[in-house]
Structure formats: C-alpha cells, structure tokens
Amino acid sequence: MDTRWYNDVTIGMEIGPLVKGPMSVMHIMRWSAAMENFHRIHYDYRFATQHDGLPDIVINGSWKQHVMVQLMKDWLGHNGWLWKISFQFRAMDLAGDTLSAWGRVTDTYEEAGLGFVTCSLGLRNQEGRESTPGTAVGVLPVRGGRPVPYPFMLPPRSVVERPAREGDA
Amino acid sequence: MGHSITEAVRAMIGMESSLLIAADAVEAGAIRRFIQAIMDNDPLYWDRSYALTTRYGERVAPPLYPVNAFHRPAKAPDPLRRAFEDPEFDGTGEMIGLLWGLPPVPIDLPRLLNGGNDIEFYQYARIGERLSVRARYVDIYERAARDGTPMVFIVIESKFFNDRNQLLLINRQTLIRR
Q1: Chain A contact present for B86, CB below 8 A
Q2: Which top CATH class is A6-22+60-146?
Q3: Among B26, B44, B114, which would you mutate to test the A interface (most chain A Cβ atoms within 10 Å of its Cβ)?
C-alpha cells in the first residue's frame, strides 16, 4: 500500500466512497455468526417485524462501524494511523440496502512532527439517506519528517484535546 | 419523565468491571471469518510475507477486532437455553460483548439499540495474544423519544489490552433501551 503524505492532503478532500451491498440477510447473518451475536433482529424476520416492530431485518451497527473504520484505515494507508473515530447510529439500515461510506477532510494541522487530519464521515444508502454521521482524526507522516509511531503514542496535550462536538454537555 | 433512572440505577454510574480475559487467544481462523464477514480483504490481516514488509512486522487483526473478540467460554452456561422457556427471548442475554461483565442496569424497557461509539486506537491485536477488557458505566440518563416514549442511554467505556497489558483501544459505546 502506498504511503499517503500529510503534505498532499487538503481541506475538502473527499475520502471514498467505500461501497458494500446490496446487503442480503445472508451477509448480515454471516456477520452475526462471526461475532457470535444471537440478537434476533438481525436474522429472524418475524421477531424483528412483529415483536420489535421493525420494518425488516436490521444491519448490525457493529458491522457498520467496521465499514467506517475500513474507509479511514484504507485512506490513511499502512504508514498512517486512524487515531479516533466516532459515529452515531441515527437511523437503521435494512436488508437489501447498499451502503456507501464516505468522508471529507475538515481540518489539517501539523504537531510534534506529525500531520493530523480531521474528517467528517457518513454512511448513506442507495436513496442517499444518511444513517451514521461521524467524525475521525487520522495521523499521517509529513515529507521529511518522522514516521507515525507504532504503537501510536499520544502527542503533546494540546493535540489530544478532542474538538467539541454536537451532543457534548 | 425520568422515572426509569431510580437511585439503584444512578448508583451504577462509575461502576467498573473486573478485568475480563478472552476465552481464547486471537486465532488466524477467527480473523479470517471476521474479515470475510466485514468484507475487508486487507493483506495486513492474512498475508504474512506482506505484513513483514510493513511497520507492523506481523499480521494484525482489524482495528476494532477486540470489541467483537470476547465469547462464551466452554464452561459457561448456554445463553440460548432461555429460548427453550421463552419463545420471545430476543437472544441478547448474557452477551459478553455488551456489558463486559458489568451487572445489567435494572431498567424495564424491552428493546435494545446501539446508539453509537467514540473510539481511540493505539495498537492492533495480533495472533496468539490473549486479550483483556475492563469496562465502566460512565453515564446513564433518560430522554424522551420524538413520540414521547422513554429512552434510557447507557454509556459504557471499555479499555482493551493485549497480553502484555498494553492498551489497544478505548471504546465508549452508547446503548439505548426503549
């Protein structure tokens, strides 16, 4: 995988999309089996619709979070580091949906010889409806600078403060 | 409003679990099933010769793998036994990867939703490592849904470690009962 350099990143740059789907009940069941999750809303149509009153089998939030992480990890590359990611599951995605994870660079700053990139993220279905708004902070090497440390070490205090977000008290 | 947050519920904020150790070490086969299910075929997860050329030096598990890597030990009772008694059992009881050994919050609301996550990564898990996790209730609060029905938000912070006690990631998950 090629190195992505901080110097080549600009605010507004698009990340992805990373497209998965259409997500059948088979795909959803495969995930539930891999993680040994038996929550019936992810494979039992009668239970999901009649007991829980849902419109269909639900795609696991736990699966969607790996898609968001993959989007950022692949974009940052193996010489970068996905440091922080957060998202809210605001709407359900259902069996039959095709999901596109997308990101956009919202800010860049250099600190302690490393490049920091903040992004907004989302996951939209085939109708363009967003279900999973989020944000991320990635770390990239600066040309001529030091490698991003692995294991990732906290940079100076001024950088580790998480920017205020909607929903913060 | 607010009737779900009893004194007993409020007293659980700040409560911490004991360190929970995964039933099995991280296995190549478990990683394979996992990456096939998330459909992420990154060679860093499965191609040893490729991984050796990277700064990771060895195959790694996907970043969020530890969050889904704690399963029922062979000696523990079968959680699905409840389905024999209760045909409307939702399948979620005793799921390790939900409460991480914390006692359940006594709230009488039948449905469970995953509200979201706030995650920090420091290191990836590797094959052969026995992972551990410690969790804490950081907040429990009630809000009304748009239709006026009560919703209780339960925020659990879990810290995951490898078998050298190095921090892998911190996950703050919001569970919603309604």
Answers
A1: no
A2: alpha beta
A3: B114
